[in-house]
Amino acid sequence: MSLLIPDYVFDSIYEITPALLAASGVRGVLFDLDGTIASHKAALPPEALAPFFRTLTDAGYPVLVFSNNRDRRVAPFCRALDIPFISRAGKPLQRGFRRAAAQLGLEPRQLAIVGDQIFTDVFGGNRAGATTCYVQTLDRRYFWVNFRYQFERGFISRGQKRMKARGGHE
User: Fold this and answer.
1) Which of 26-30, 55-59, 149-153 has the lowest mean pLDDT?
2) pLDDT tens-place string over residues 39-52
3) Helices 49-58 & 71-81 angle (0-180, nearest 10)
4) In whole angstroms, what is the distance from residue 106 CA to residue 28 CA?
């Protein structure tokens, strides 16, 4: 069960800072796409995303979009940002996490995995030995997402308690 508990819980990706990554020993970041960095309905990135990614990369943290979605969804989105990606990642299977780490020239334990799903992003990231960051989904208004959340909320709550016991994320 502890593999389903995130290391950090955030309302938004924009709460993730280079200082937090440094304090966690992270050297690179994998971001889920749908529900995490953009709504699954958004064809192109939101305006604030490119400067956010630039802040991370300028601080020495390479980023990679790591999505289970198809290439025809992920590729145009990431090309608009000029950032690398892996589509059809196969989360939560370890093979995809190892491939992403290798693409960044890092070990899985040096990564932060940022996503909005406990059973794919957090579970897979924890199994890989990465730092896991759960963020509230951007697609909360959809029935199927709220349905999934009912199963995830206990793990999210435990992640918040874990984070608070560690001193938060300031």
Assistant:
1) 149-153
2) 888 888 999 999 99
3) 70
4) 8
